[in-house]
Amino acid sequence: MTAxxxxxxxxxxxxxxxxxxxxxxxxxxxxxxxxxxxxxxxGAMPERLSRPERLERLRRSLAVAAARAAVHRFELVRxxxxxxxxxxxxxxxxxxxxxxxxxxxxxxxxxxxxxxxxVRSLEAEARARGIDVDAIQPAIDWRNTLAVDGYEAPKYxxxxxxxxAAVEFFRRVGKR
Length: 176
Known about the structure:
Layout: H1 9-15, H2 23-39, H3 51-78, H4 80-128, H5 159-174
């Protein structure tokens, strides 16, 4: 069985200017690459290496880094559509999240605040009539329920309102 190796055309042209290698040459190229990768230094460079040893170590490190960059470039090209789809999905999710927090959450929190106030007023009325509200089930654990008593819906600005505010600001500043 023959294992296939894929490589980008641009990388192939840089490696093999003629565009074609004989099988023995391919095996030699792969063996050389494996040997360089296997002999690549790991970790920090020791301080006491001689200049030739340092250069050889840097050459091997550069070869491995270039190979890693080629692999990443290959994956980027091969997976481009998946990455684009993933980016679109992320943007859509983010926009949906913003939309919910802008359009859905504020009215629900305002409704919850009104309901909490209504429950509290009904409890006060029941206490005034002599009813033990703590005995009514299901009990409301006020400390662990959503605290919306002080909630105010955020005010979102439109681009037009921001432009008007900027113009007004510069008019005020210009009058000084």
